[in-house]
Amino acid sequence: MQPATAPPAPRSTRTTPAIEVTDLRRSYGDFEAVRGISFEVQPGEVLALLGVNGAGKTSALEVLEGLAPAGGGTVRVLGLDPVRDRARVRRELGVLLQTSGLPGDLTVAETLRTWAGTLTAPRPVQEALAQVSLTGRADVRVRSLSGGERRRLDLALALLGRPSVVVLDEPTTGLDPESRRQVWELVQGLVADGAAVLLTTHHLEEAEVLADRVAVMRSGQVVLSGTQAEIAETQPATVRFVLDDDAPQPPVPAGVQVVSTGRRVEWQTGSLQPVLAELLAWAAQHGVVLRTLLARAGSLEQAFLAVADGAHPAVATTPEENR
């Protein structure tokens, strides 16, 4: 009889991060713009890095892109140092900056062909044009493009080398709603093909549509991080309704913060369902009509505004906490 053997240990389903940032710091003289942030982005995932202007997002991205060294901590792209190993990282990294400064005298097609000449295995120019709906503008000079068309050209250049890691800094700035949706579909296609995407945006709807996880920055630190649901749960739910002039005031359930009372009532609570059930039961018992009743869970927008207003204190995070 063969000796019994222990079953094999379960294999980890976790992949190596495409982007790994640990305790990153960056200073300008005595000013510390990035103060020890940590996050990861996995292949096939979108992380949205949010924050008001001056939060430190672009300063962090410049280190990730290999444009500046870290003042402390480590940054790895596909396991490589983006500054020391910049030539190797560049082959796999696609970057869309907030502004590009493209030569205005070249046509759209000439611009793409010129950039393709610097890449190892670029996609065909016609494919790149079709990808961003610029096929009909191939022979137009860059200076004659609209702001939205120029932004789409920027995106075509960022994706020309078929990157496996993509950094998009405000990708839909200046785009109309239809073009913005097209960019969202393009990003979703990149992720479906296994690319890792790091996105900054001021459009919270964009983060809600695209992001698997979100990190919210203030004053150089990551204050909140997690899935959208996890971040929304940090915010109180809102119950709002209007009473008739002769209606009695409802009793305030336990754990409710009263924002306003009188005819127009607003409550905030961390327990939406039981509070709403208690309110509806009271209204039914006393024959009270709750006009324009609104019950809304916490949201990413609430969390973002709370961070921007300083309602959330800055907290230290680790890569494990951001997974």
Looking across the biggest beta sheet, what order are the strands in?
Answer: 5-6-7-3-8-9
* Major pleated sheet: 6 strands, mixed
- Provide the succession of SSEs: EEEHEHEHHHEHEHEEHEEEHEH
- Overall pLDDT confidence: 89
Distance between the termini: 46 Å
Strand content: 25-35%
Number of helices: 10
Structural class: alpha/beta
- Share in helix: 25-40%
Structure description:
- The two termini are 46 Å apart.
- With 323 residues, the protein is an alpha/beta fold.
- α3 packs across α4 (125-131).
- The protein has a six-stranded mixed β-sheet with strand order 5-6-7-3-8-9, with helices on both faces. Strands 11-12-10-13 form a four-stranded antiparallel β-sheet, covered by helices on one side. It has a three-stranded antiparallel β-sheet with strand order 2-1-4, with helices on one face.
- It has helices at residues 57-64, 86-90, 108-116, 125-131, 147-159, 177-192, 204-210, 228-232, 272-286, 300-308, and strands at 19-28, 31-41, 46-50, 72-77, 93-96, 165-169, 196-200, 213-218, 221-226, 237-242, 256-260, 264-269, 291-296.
- The chain is elongated.
- The protein contains ten helices and 13 strands.
